[in-house]
Amino acid sequence: MSRFLSPRWAELEPYAPGEQPRDRNYVKLNTNESPYPPPDSVIAAVAAQAAQMELYPDPDSKALTDAAAEHYGVRPENILMTNGSDEILNFAFLAFGDQNRGFAAPDVTYGYYKIAAKAGGVRFTEIPLKEDFRVDAEAFCETSEHVVLPNPGAPTGVSVSKADVERILQANPNRVVIIDEAYVDFGGESSVPLLSQYDNLLITQTFSKSRSLAGGRIGLGLAGPEIIAELLRLKNAFAPYNISRIDAAAGLAALAEETYYRKNALRIAETRDRTAEELQQRGFTVLPSQANFLFVRPNFLPGGSYYKKMKEKGVLIRHWNQPRIADWCRITIGTPEQMRILLDKSDELKGETEI
Length: 355
Ligand SMILES: *Cc1c(COP(=O)(O)O)cnc(C)c1O
Description:
The chain has about 350 residues and is of the alpha/beta class. The chain is built from eleven helices and twelve strands. The chain has a seven-stranded mixed β-sheet, with helices on both faces. It is globular and about 60 Å long.
């Protein structure tokens, strides 16, 4: 720490993103990106913006917001577009949380929640997932904190039922319940239809995964007008031009390509289910996933060794050296060819360990 740093940041912990190594060409299955590129129309829309880069973008992202509202069947007052969904999560923690009222999240969950909450001085409480990695809805009904839950779950892929989401929403109308739907397009059930009934519901989504735009940074929040107005106040204070011209153009073009994206999401879900079967036949424990990844326990090797040996073989997956999940790895679903390589390398590794 330098002598210049404010003591406010003495405890600051950085988020640890999945590695993006350049040392060799990996089969990259570690950060839940889409294996399929954006459609030509999105690439053309991005290219067309290059000639106007001397101009600031629209601070209200109006065209993108209106198109998203139409897409989700809500009004523009129900939406805030952000720089990735991490930004809306951060705004929500800052807007609604503090040292006296924090957020509760599962103990095994998306790592950014804890980092962002703590960085913003927001109390953070962990509620253990059940033994089978399902969300303990009862415990979330009993907490007096705001709630943040990924659905489908991260890194588990396991979904929370709509009935459980509603129970949590009903249990305390005076706290905000964030449902993070980063992976909902791969087979989960969206809570968007609940928006008209619950003014304490905030749904976050992203264009990073199912819309092949992780390299752009486009996310959004969907909620009642009251919550959106508060989040907008923070957006206008911290990041008035939060969506770049390029991202706004990419997002707008992406919203016009539903057929393309739905086809890809379906392909990925099929590849996922086939890969899950293949892994189970090989003795892996595989959680039931509705996302574009599988959370697996190899059983013939500890999770950390499996991750490390697979990396040596050129296949990059994700492992967390954390209580409860140290024996597990998360595998992003790639193309069928990439999954073939994963299975072949895994078989090779199993052969080597049995010698
Ligand atoms: C990837 C991810 C996000 C954030 O994605 P952005 O790229 O910031 O939009 C949010 N929540 C979960 C659970 C994720 O896995």
